[in-house]
Specification:
Length: about 475
C-alpha cells in the first residue's frame, strides 16, 4: 500500500529545519503515478518564495485591526495531539480498484481536466514553495489527503479487534468525476455496488452492520445520490442511497441539507498543509498583520443555466461598480483563479470575502478565505451554516456576515441590498472580534501534511475522527 510504507523510509518533511529546498520524498507508488508538472507549476515554484514575502507576509504594516493580538498558544487547537476518548481507528486495506488502483489512469479521472499533477504527493498536488507547506491542491481531493493522514495517524491500530472506529478509504469522488458522462447507469454504479458487497462480507462490518464505519468523499453528496426509481439523471451514482451505506457515517465536502442525516460536512482542502505547529502559528501571525486595503472582494466567474447564477451575477455587478471591492473574474481557462498565490493575495488584502453559491451551495473559497484571515460573507445558509457543524462556530455571526440580497427590501420595491452599505455598517470592533475568531479557526479547517504524525494542533482530520467516534458510540448505545 502507498501510505503503509511512510514510516519505513526517510522522510525529510519530518525534520523541517534540516529540509533542503525541493527535496520532496516520494514512495515508489507515488513516483509511478506522478507525471511531469506543467510549465505553470514550474513557474509557481520559482516565484513562490518571492511572492510569499512580497505579497502577503506583512510584518510591519497593520490594517485598521492593528489592535489584534496573536491567539493564546494554549488554545485547544494548539495542544499536542493525543487519542481522544481512547480512539482506535482501523483502516481497511481495500482492493486497489477502490482507491490507489484508480490512480493508474489519472489522465481520465476527471472528464474536464488531467488529474495526474493533482493526485501527486498524496493528493496535495504540486509543491509551491521550499517550506514544504504550500501546494496547488485541487478542491476535490479531500478523500486522498484524509486517507494519507489516517494511514500515518497516531491513533491508528492494525488490529481490528482493538478498533472502535473503522475507515473505508474509497476514492469515490475521483471515480465519480470520471463517470459523469457515462450513459449506462449500471456502469456508473458498478464500483459503488461492489464496494458495499465487499464490506458486507467483512466480519467487522457484520458485528455492528457498519454503524462504526465511515467514508470520506471529496465531492458533494449530490454527486452520490442519483435515484434509481426512474427519476432525473442527477448525480454520478447511487452510493449514498444504498441501504447499507445509510448505516455508516459519511464525510463529504457538502452534505444534503434535508436528506443527509448520516452525512457530515468536511472542509474543502485549501493550499496550506503545515507539518508542525510553528508553521501554523507563523501563518496566523502574518494574517493578523496583513494590510487589508479593500473593504470586500469577490473571486469567481458568471454562471449560466443554474438557479444560483442570479446571485453570482449580482455580486459581480456590485463589486465591479464599487471602488472598495477587489474583483477577480475567472475566465473559461481559469486564469489567475487557478494560481493559489493570486487567490490568496486578493483574499489577504480584503476585510470581507463574498461567498456566492456555485454549482451547489458550498464553495471551496470559504476555506480559502478563513486561511487568509478574510471574513466570509454568505448569501445562503447552506453555504456554511448547515454544513460544517464540527468545524465552524454554531453562532454564524461570530465569524461571518449573512446578507439576504432580496429580503424585505425587494418586497417594498426598493431593489437589491447594497453589499457595500451593509458591510460599511459593521463597526471596527466587531470586525476585530470576527477576525480573531477566524484566526483561531484556521488550525481545525486545515489539512496538515500527511507525513506528520503529530503536528502539535488538531487539524481537520483530528476534528473529524473525534466527532466520528462520538457518533459511532451514540449509534451503538454506548453513551
Amino acid at each position: 500500500m502507498l501510505f503503509r510504507k511512510l514510516s519505513l523510509v526517510p522522510i525529510p518533511w519530518r525534520d523541517h529545519h534540516a529540509h533542503k529546498a525541493n527535496n520532496f520524498s516520494k514512495t515508489k507508488e507515488t513516483q509511478y503515478y506522478h507525471t511531469h508538472a506543467t510549465f505553470r507549476y514550474v513557474l509557481l515554484i520559482f516565484l513562490s518564495s518571492w511572492f510569499l514575502t512580497a505579497c502577503f507576509f506583512f510584518s510591519s504594516t497593520y490594517s485598521r485591526n492593528d489592535h489584534l493580538h496573536f491567539p493564546n498558544t494554549a488554545t485547544k487547537e494548539l495542544l499536542p495531539i493525543t487519542c481522544p476518548s481512547n480512539l482506535s481507528i482501523f483502516v481497511y486495506q481495500l482492493p486497489p480498484e477502490f482507491n490507489l488502483g484508480l490512480l493508474r489512469d489519472c489522465t481520465h479521472l476527471n472528464v474536464y481536466t488531467n488529474m495526474c499533477p493533482h493526485v501527486a504527493n498524496h493528493g496535495l498536488g504540486q509543491p509551491l514553495s521550499a517550506t514544504g507547506a504550500w501546494f496547488a491542491t485541487h478542491q476535490f481531493l479531500a478523500e486522498m489527503i484524509f486517507h494519507a493522514r489516517v494511514e500515518n495517524h497516531p491513533c491508528r491500530t492494525w488490529d481490528p479487534a482493538l478498533a472502535n472506529l473503522f475507515y473505508v478509504p474509497f476514492y469515490g469522488g475521483l471515480h465519480a468525476s470520471s463517470k459523469f458522462r457515462e450513459a449506462n447507469h449500471t456502469a456508473r454504479d458498478e464500483l459503488a455496488v461492489r464496494l458495499v458487497e465487499y464490506l458486507q462480507t467483512q466480519p467487522w462490518w457484520q458485528k455492528h452492520q457498519g454503524k462504526d464505519h465511515f467514508l470520506a468523499l471529496g465531492r458533494t453528496a449530490w454527486d452520490f445520490m442519483r435515484t434509481t426509481n426512474g427519476g432525473p439523471d442527477f448525480g454520478a451514482n447511487c452510493l449514498l442511497n444504498l441501504p447499507p451505506v445509510k448505516n455508516m457515517s459519511v464525510l463529504t465536502v457538502e452534505r444534503h441539507p434535508w436528506q443527509g442525516l448520516n452525512q457530515y460536512g468536511l472542509p474543502y482542502p485549501s493550499y496550506f498543509h503545515p507539518s508542525n505547529v510553528v508553521q501554523m502559528r507563523t501563518w496566523q501571525r502574518k494574517m493578523i498583520r496583513s494590510e487589508r486595503t479593500h473593504l470586500f472582494s469577490f473571486i469567481g466567474r458568471p454562471r449560466k443555466g443554474v438557479e444560483k447564477a442570479a446571485v453570482r451575477d449580482e455580486l459581480i455587478r456590485q463589486c465591479n461598480e464599487s471602488t472598495r471591492c477587489n474583483l477577480l473574474i475567472c475566465g473559461s481557462g481559469g486564469g489567475k483563479c487557478h494560481e493559489p498565490f493570486e487567490v490568496l493575495k486578493v483574499l489577504s488584502q480584503s476585510h470581507f470575502c463574498l461567498q456566492a453559491p456555485g454549482d451547489s451551495f458550498t464553495r471551496r473559497s470559504t476555506f480559502d478565505s478563513v486561511l487568509a484571515g478574510c471574513i466570509p460573507v454568505f448569501f445562503s445558509p447552506h453555504t456554511a451554516y448547515t454544513q460544517y457543524g464540527w468545524y465552524l462556530p454554531v453562532n454564524g455571526s461570530a465569524y461571518s456576515v449573512y446578507i439576504d440580497l432580496d429580503g424585505s427590501e425587494m418586497e417594498k420595491g426598493k431593489g437589491k441590498k447594497s453589499i457595500e452599505e451593509e458591510l460599511s455598517k459593521i463597526s471596527s470592533d466587531r470586525v476585530g472580534r470576527m477576525r480573531r475568531k477566524i484566526i483561531e479557526m484556521m488550525p481545525r479547517i486545515t489539512y496538515a501534511h500527511p507525513n506528520s504524525s503529530d503536528v502539535g494542533f488538531a487539524d481537520a482530520v483530528d476534528v473529524a475522527l473525534e466527532a466520528l467516534l462520538k457518533n459511532a458510540r451514540s449509534k451503538l448505545g454506548l453513551v
